Amino acid sequence: MTSTGMIGLSASDLVAQLSISQKVALCLGADNWRTAPVPEAGIESVMVSDGPHGLRKQPGEFLAPGLPATCFPTASALGSCWDAALVREVGAALGAEARAQDVAVILGPGANIKRSPLCGRNFEYFSEDPCLAGQLAAAMVDGIQSQHVGACVKHFAANNQETDRLRVSAELDERTLREIYLSVFERVVSTARPWVVMSAYNKINGEYAWRNRWLLTEVLRDEWGFDGVVMSDWGSVQDRVAALAAGLDLEMPPNFGISDRAVTEAIANGTLAESVLDEAVARVVRLVLRSRDRRPAELDAAAHHALARRAAAASIVLLKNDAGALPLSDEPGLTVAVIGEFARRPSYQGVGSSAVTPLHVDVPLDELARALPSATIRFSPGYPLGHSEADKEAAGTLADEALRAAEGADVIIMVFGLPPGSEVEHIDRSHIDLPAAQTDLLRRLAGNENATPVVAVLFNGSVIRTSTWDDCTSAVLECWLAGQAAGSALADVLTGIVNPSGRLAETIPLRLEDAPSYLNFPGEEGHVRYGEGVFVGYRGYDAAARSIAYPFGHGLSYTQFEYRGLTVSTDGAGGLAVTCTVANIGGRAGHEVVQLYVGDLKSRVRRPPRELKAFSRIYLEPGIAREISFTVTARDLSYWSPSRGRWVLEPGEFRVDVGASSRDIRLAQHITIESPGSS
Ligand code: BGC
Fold first, then answer.
1. What's the confidence (pLDDT) of residue 62?
2. What is the Cα–Cα distance from 607 to 325, expressed in whole angstroms?
3. Distances from the Cα of 249 to the Cα of 67, 197, 335, angstroms
4. Which of 18, 99, 332, 520 could be stapled to 297 by a disulfide with Cβ–Cβ 3.0 to 4.6 Å?
C-alpha cells in the first residue's frame, strides 16, 4: 500500500500491519534527529530539533552548528517576564520556525527547577519555583503546538545538575519530588498536553529515569494522563528492553542496531511482551500522524526579531534604581560612557545543545547610540573576555583607558557579564562571582571624583553575586541571556521606551554559601542528596530567615504601584477566592506583577513560610486602578503525604500574602479552611 493509501488509518490499525522488526525499528531513531520511516507501511520519518529558545536544525554532522534561526531569549530571561501570554507567543514563533524548516518536534522547553545557583544549565530553565516554571513552560508548549508542531518537555525528572549528569542518583523523598520537581511537569502535562516528554539521564533514588516505571508509567501516564511519546535523552538508554517495559517509547539517537537486536530477542524469548512494544509503537506512529497536520510556512525573520526584542525587554529586571538614575533621556550635551566589552560583543545565550545560530544580533552599543541620537557616547571595552596570560596583561591597560573614557561623563553604563564558556551544558559552575577584572574596574569607576552615577548592566544566564559590588552602583539592570535582540531590548529599557517589568524568577543570595542546597550540591560518589527537601530557593531562604541580596519576585518599575482592598474567602471546595486592587500611582504607564503567596500556619509537616500560588501581570496607565482576582485550589493548599500516598489538605489557618515580591508583601490576611479533605 502507498503512503497516501495509509493516511486514513489510525495508529493502532497501522501497528497491526507491521512486522516485529518494523515495530522494533520504529522505537529507535533513524539518525541523530529523525525517527525511523517504514515506507512499506506509509509511515514517514519525522525530524526533531533542539530547542529550547530557538531552532537548531543541524544540516549535517552532530556537532555542526544549526541552520540560522531566531535566537529568542533563553528561559533564564523568559522566566523573569512572568507573562504566560508572551511566552506563548514566543512558543508560537518557535513553532512557525519549525514549520519553515520542516521540523516536527522542538526539544524544549526545559522544565527543571533551578535547585542550585551553580547548575550549568540554569540558563535553560525558568525558575526556582514550580508554579512559575510550570505556567511558563505550559505556555511555551501551548504556543509551539498551536502550530501543529510538537513540544518535548525535558528533562523528566530531577535533572538539576550537570556534574556526573549521565549517572548521578538524585536522592529525594517523595514529598520533595512531588511538590517541587514533578509538579512543574504535572502542570505542563495536564494543562498543555505536550506531544513528547524527554526522560532524563540521571537516576532518581537509584533507578535511571529512562527505565523508571513508576515515573514514566504510573505517574506520567496513569496519574497525569500523558498520551504522547516518552523519548530518551541523547544516548542515555543502556537497556532498551528495560526502558520499553518502564514506558519509554523512543530511544534517541540510534546505536548501530544493538538495542533493536536486544528487543527482538526479548520478544522471542518472552521476557518482553509484544503488547508493550505495540503500545510504544502506537505512540510513535501517533506522533507521526499528528505531525501530518503541520503546514509549511515562510519564516518572518523581521517579525520574529521584533518579538525577540519585546520578550527580552519584558524580561529585563531593574534590580535597583537609586535617585531615579534611570531612565536616560536623550539630550544634547549628555555624555554617556559605555564601558565593557559585552557592549559590543553581547552575551545572549549559553553553550551546548541549545545554542542557536542567530539570524541577526543587535549590538547594545549601536542600539544605545541609535536610541540617544543627541547624546555623545564614549565607549571603552574596559576588561578582557578571556583569561589567558595576554588577557591578564591587557587588563590593566584596558581599565586605565576605561577610566579616561568615563572622565567627565554624565553617566557611566558598565556592562558586565559571565565570560564565554561559563554557562555550559555538561559543566556546573564552581562559584557565582563575576570576574575580578570587571568588578575591580567597577570599583575604580565608582570612585570617580565627580560621583558620576554608574548603571550596571548584567548579561548572565545563572544568578551572580551582586553584594560585593552593588554599593558602587546607582542602578542595576539584570538582562540575563536574552537572545539575539538583547541589545535593542536593553536600549529600550535604559531609555524608558519600555518601562521595566521583569521580576526575579530566582533569589539572588548574598553568598553562594547561603543557598539552601549549598552543602548538598553536587553530591559525591554518584549520589546527590536533596537534603534541603522542599526548601528550595526562596522557600529555604525564608524558612531560615536568611538575608538575601534580591528576593524572588523582585523587580522595579519607572512608576509605582499601590495595593489595597484584599478580600479572601473560601470557595466551598477547599480552595480560596482572592481579590485585591492595584493602582498605578506614579507618572508612567507600566506593568505590575501581582504575586499571591500562601502559607499554612500550623501543619503536621514542615512547610515553607510562603509559596507562590498565582500571579498576574497587569498593565496600568498612570492614575488607573484595577481589581484583580485569583483562585487558589485545594490542591494548591495541600502537601504531599508519602505515608498516605496522596495530596492532603489540613484544615486550619492559612495566611494569604499579596505583594510585589516574596519579601515585599503589601497585603496579608488569615483565613481558616474548615473542611478537611484532599484533592
Ligand atoms: C541534552 C538534551 C538535548 C539533546 C539533543 C542532550 O545532551 O541533554 O537537552 O535535547 O542532547 O541535543
1. 64
2. 40
3. 28, 10, 61
4. 99
CB burial of residue 61 (10 Å; 0-12, 13-18, 19+): exposed
Q: Ligand 1, residue 154: give the atom nearest the CA.
A: 9
The H-assigned helical ranges of 101-204 are 130-145, 174-176, 183-192
| DSSP H stretches of helix in 101-182 | 130-145, 174-176
Q: Which stretch of 50-64, 65-79, 304-318 has the lowest confidence by average pLDDT?
A: 50-64
Rounded-to-integer distance, Cα 516 and Cα 510, Å = 12
CA proximity to 84, closest of 125, 132, 124: 132
pLDDT in tens, 575-593: 999 999 999 999 999 999 9
What is the average pLDDT value for the chain, to the nearest integer? Answer: 96
Convert the pLDDT of each residue in 337-355 to its tens digit.
999 999 999 999 999 999 9
Dist. CA 569–CA 672, nearest whole Å: 9
**C-alpha cell, 524:** 559525591
Residue 51: asked if its preceding bond is cis (omega within 30°), the reply is yes
Model confidence band, residue 1 (pLDDT cutoffs 50, 70, 90): very low
| Predicted confidence (pLDDT) per residue in 519-552, tens digit | 999 999 999 999 999 999 999 999 999 999 999 9
| N- to C-terminal Cα separation, the chain | 50
- In this prediction, residue 2 carries a pLDDT of 35
> For residue 573, what is the DSSP state?
S
Q: Would you call 233 a catalytic residue per the annotation?
A: yes
Note whether 465 and 448 are within 8 A (CB). no
Place of cell 552548528: 65
Question: Measured over all CA atoms, what is the biggest interatomic distance in the chain, rounded to whole angstroms?
Answer: 84
Query: Is 289's pLDDT higher than 90?
Result: yes
Residue located nearest, by CA, to atom 4 of ligand 1:
234
With beta carbons less than 8 A apart as the criterion, state whether 52 and 455 touch: no
With a 6 A CB cut-off, is 353 part of the ligand 1 pocket? yes
CB proximity list for 324: less than 8 A, separation 6 or greater: none
| Options 50, 83, 142, 233, the catalytic residue | 233
Residue 571 in contact with residue 553, Cβ under 8 Å?
A: no
The CA 55 to ligand 1 mean position distance, Å, reads: 13
Transcribe 52-102 into DSSP letters.
Answer: SSS-B--SSSTTSPPPPB--PPPHHHHTTT--HHHHHHHHHHHHHHHHHTT
SS3 content of the chain, % helix, strand, coil (to 5): 30, 25, 45
Bridge partners of residue 413, in order along the sequence: 338, 455
**Which pLDDT does position 677 carry in this prediction?**
46
Please give the Cα distance from 473 to 412 (Å, whole number): 10
| Confidence label for 4 from pLDDT (cuts 50, 70 and 90) | very low
Residue 449 is predicted with a pLDDT of 78
Q: Confirm or reject: Cβ of 501 under 6 Å from ligand 1.
A: no
Choose which residue among 57, 105, 107 to substitute to test ligand 1 binding: the one with the highest number of ligand atoms within 8 A of its C-beta.
107
The residues near 376 (Cβ < 8 Å, ≥ 6 apart) are: 334, 335, 336
Cβ contact 340:438 at 8 Å: yes
Interval 374-399 mean pLDDT = 93
pLDDT digits (tens, 9 = 90+) for 127-174: 999 999 999 999 999 999 999 999 999 999 999 999 999 999 999 999
Residue from 50, 74, 161 to probe ligand 1 pocket by mutation (most atoms less than 8 Å from CB): 50
461 CB neighbour count, 10 Å cutoff: 27
The CA–CA distances, whole Å, from 467 to 414, 423, 471, 513 equal 16, 21, 8, 13
pLDDT-derived band at 392, boundaries 50, 70, 90: confident
